[in-house]
Structures are given as C-alpha cells and as structure tokens.
Design a protein that fits this description.
The chain has about 190 residues and is mainly beta. It is about 10% helix and about 35% strand.
C-alpha cells in the first residue's frame, strides 16, 4: 500500500490545533459584548505539550498509582484479661474507692483501654478482656493506671508498668501488678502471632 503525498501550494499553511482555536474563538470578548457569569474564558490547552509531559513521566518509571510505598511488618496480638484487684486503697475522705483501670500501650493503634468502675469495693472483680496489636519486633510496655472514680474528678491511685518483650508466645501468663500504695491487680496475658 502506497500513500502519495500531495505537494503543498504556496497559499497553504500548516494549521496547528492552537492556531485553529485562536482563529475561531477570541481569547477576550470585545468590550461591547457583555460577559455572562456562567461563561468563562480560558486559554486553550496545548494537548501536545500535555502528552509530552505525561510520556516523559512514564518513561522515567513514574506510576501515579504508586505514590506511596508501603511495607508491611508482622504484628502480634497481646490479649490482656483484667481479672481482679486486692487491697485497693481508700479514696478521698476515707470513703471506699470506686476503682477502675486504664491500660495503655504506646504505639498501638487501639492503645488506650479502660475497665468499668466497680462501686464501693476494696476487692473489685472486673473480668474484662482486651486486645492490643503490637509490633512483633518491639512489643514495648503495658502502662496500667489504677483510678478512683469520683463525681467531681477522678483520682490516680497508682501506676505500674509491665515490659511485654519477655512475654512467651502462645503461653498464658499470669502477673500480679503491685502499686506503691499496696494495691494489687491480677492480669492474665497471652501473646499470639497475627
């Protein structure tokens, strides 16, 4: 199949898309014509230039769908069973306390949890279970705050922390946490791979 190219006459000139748009549509309307708010005057888009930019980016290995590179690391689930407390110190003005616990693991997406408050008990039984998603390489610590619920403002009774890095895999582990004021809380922990 052969294509014959026509010879160009002197009057013919090559018209680009940009020239065609400029010839048919003026960039700015004449001053005598009112401009309606709905019509907008914009400069024509140079499609050839736009195509060159896109092809240059693709040639360099740019993929707009891969703007962020995400690497996934293993995580472990630590199950914490808050069982009970003993010898919980008295609250303000020698009242029996209304204890509850706040559990916190820094760096965990669901890192702060709270038990319910047990009204007027020195030996509360919570029997509540929580799960924490933690980095498999560095589990970090479990911070526990023993709180006393009051009408005006809750009071911190004591603080304790537990290092989770030494926690054995797939083995139930019981731990008594002792606070400065003599209070004691029993936790059961289990570390699993996700």
């Amino acid at each position: 199949m052969f294509f014959h190219q026509r010879k160009k006459s002197k009057e013919e000139r090559i018209v680009t898309p940009k020239d065609a748009v400029e010839e048919t549509q003026p960039l700015h309307p004449p001053a005598s014509q009112p401009v309606s708010p709905s019509s907008s005057v914009t400069e024509p888009i140079d499609l050839e230039k736009k195509h060159r930019i896109h092809s240059a980016l693709w040639d360099k290995g740019f993929d707009p769908f891969q703007l962020f590179e995400v690497s996934h690391r293993r995580c472990h689930i630590v199950h914490v069973h808050v069982v009970s407390g003993k010898n919980i110190s008295r609250g303000w003005f020698s009242q029996t306390p209304d204890p509850y616990l706040v559990l916190w693991t820094p760096g965990s997406p669901n890192g702060r949890r709270r038990t319910r408050a047990i009204t007027g008990s020195v030996k509360p039984v919570w029997n509540e279970r929580f799960e924490f998603l933690l980095d498999a390489e560095d589990l970090g610590t479990l911070e526990v705050m023993l709180m006393d619920a009051n009408r005006m403002m809750d009071r911190i009774v004591g603080r304790a922390s537990l290092n989770l890095n030494g926690l054995p895999m797939e083995t139930k582990y019981s731990k008594d946490l002792y606070f400065d004021n003599g209070s004691r809380v029993l936790l059961r922990l289990l570390r699993k791979e996700e």
